[in-house]
Request: fold
Amino acid sequence: MTTFRQHMQKGIVQELGEIPDALKPAIHAVTFRIDSVDQDPRLPYLAFGYLTEGHVDQQLNRADPPDEWEARWSYAYFPPSALEGVRVLGHDRVHDPRGSELHHREAVAEGVWWEDGLPESESESGSESADQDGDEDDEERAERLDAAFRALCVDLARELHDGGHLVAVLGRSVPVILYDMFAPDEMFELTRAANPPELVADFLAGERES
Reply:
């Protein structure tokens, strides 16, 4: 039986392989934007995308250019291919119904799912819920779900390196930048954990300046 982790990994590797050949030489980073539907921790998703040298050049050639680090690494200047991504994977029933089904099933099995206040578009009618009288309240369950999804995203990025997928598709390794626009302070920690140190030295230089 396919697991949520396996589904996510397969989808990311597939999307990596579908990057247009013409763009591959220009890609300097892959991006994982971590988010959730309606900011609900029960509905996490990852938007897979990428950054190109051409976009960096465009930013640096503006009339009011940012500094080079900002142009290259700050999501404030990311193009749609990195902000919106090219594929959404996770618990988003519109963009990834299979991922939603798998994530929901595993969250119920782990006792971290609850139904109260769920957006109507994501409601699992007739589904099981975690025991509301158990040891954990909804806030604690939310923290577990959030931490588990972030850890999964780090593992998925590592697998792109360790499994040789980046080299196989792009001909070289590039950093995978993990970020959540609602938790900007975690960007450096997540990206550091997901990549070989030599690939993210330039990116992490921005941490010392922030």
The chain has one domain: 4-118+127-209.
